[in-house]
Input
Amino acid sequence: MSAPGGSLSILDLPGIITLFYERAHRPLLPGAQKPLGLFVRYLRRKPARGLAVIYSVDEVRRGGKAHSNDPNRSVSLTLDEQALDGAHIRFTSAQAREAPLEVQATGVLSVKDIGLSVQAFPADASLPALAASCDTTPESPLFGALQSAARTQLGDDSWRLISAKAIPVRYKPANRCVIRYQLSLEHGKDETVLERNLTLFGKVYAAPEQARSVQALQQRLYDEQFNKTGGSPFLPRPLGMIDELGLTFNEAVQPANAGDRLVTGTRVLRPQMKRGQGGEITELVIPVEELRLTAIALARLHTSTVRPEESAPRTGAKEAKRARERAALIASHNPAQAEEVQRLAQQLAMRLETLQPDAYRPAHGGFKASQLLFHSQRVFVVDFDGFCLADPALDVGYFLAYLRPSGLWYHRPGMMPWFQAAAEVFTTAYRQAMLELGVPQAAVDGILQRSRLYEAALLFKIATRRVNRLNSPRPKELAAMLEEVAACLSN
Output
């Protein structure tokens, strides 16, 4: 990818990062003995929010695969919007070499003149509590908070925390980080000492007030569901937080019996088919029980008495605005299909703007397979950062949009029948659960009808991923997505 006028392309960024670390007299990876490379793990560009890239740091000969998911080997870079010109960068290599470099106390390298900053985990200028959230030394504030959280889960204040290990599992620079804490505890004295290992999860937020709000709502929802179901809530138990860090704690979803196993929603809800001789599809394997459990959990959420922010429901008009913005982005990246994209988006937005649900109910706000965990004939819903009041059709449409397998966009055999069968199982179970929870038939019918519009809106969101990743246009893939949008609108 060549850059115009001597400026840099995104492919040149690893060299720039290496240059800045050399200028700062800091190693990219402390203790490394062999030549290192930077390998892209994550790349997103969003309108007015610039470019974010996460690289894994590894020996060149390994190709970045051995430690590609280890945040402790990650370096993240952000470029301001004004530093970008499409997929190219406005400044030159000479400007990068000459621009003043600031090494902040947190370890962030900032070059303000060219709108660039780079940071090695756990340094994060916009997530300043991240380093403290990974400090499990006995003298740290985190150590005592982990002991309190463990005692809460075990229901016994006699347990003593002996050691703890922090393992980052999902990191979104400048926003939040999910951390797995592995704890070793002791109980008793002398010959009667008991030892136990325990896993907890933490999430540190850029805004402590968001952490407080999310954790308080989750606690209320957990308590309600615990009392309603006799101890079987559909979300993990909240275990407290460190207020000043914006760090929340929750129990780890784990099977009680060794014979059971934990399975993620993305794995369970992946299309499966049985094939005969010659590869002919003989049977679609539909995860009926998991879809049924998911639908029941969603119905329980939608009939909860816990009310998020009453004054700002997530309305159809808000989704219409997002659909128009996404369509404009897609159209700019796919000029040959721009007219069709804009036409469908306009139809969708006009219909979303006129939606009048019978009630705004508690909603997850991002309900999809990746937010689900299954074990022991139970489902657990996680990540309530988007918990809000909304038309429940939003969650139903969100789930169905993301239930579509990626093979659908390439017209692979069996994908459409699998999706249609799975969607039918889910919507039938959701309808039945809502009726059993006292929601009138007409209201449930309305939710399922309106969910088709939200499905279409979320399909536009899925279509923006290729643009945000700066991938090449794939007109056939987009055409298949637009066919699904049109189908949703026609129904």
Remarks:
- Residues 441-468 form the longest helix (28 residues).
- The radius of gyration is 25 Å.
- The first strand starts at residue 7 and ends at 9.
- Residues 263-490 form a domain with the Aminoglycoside 3'-phosphotransferase; Chain: A, domain 2 fold (CATH 3.90.1200.10).
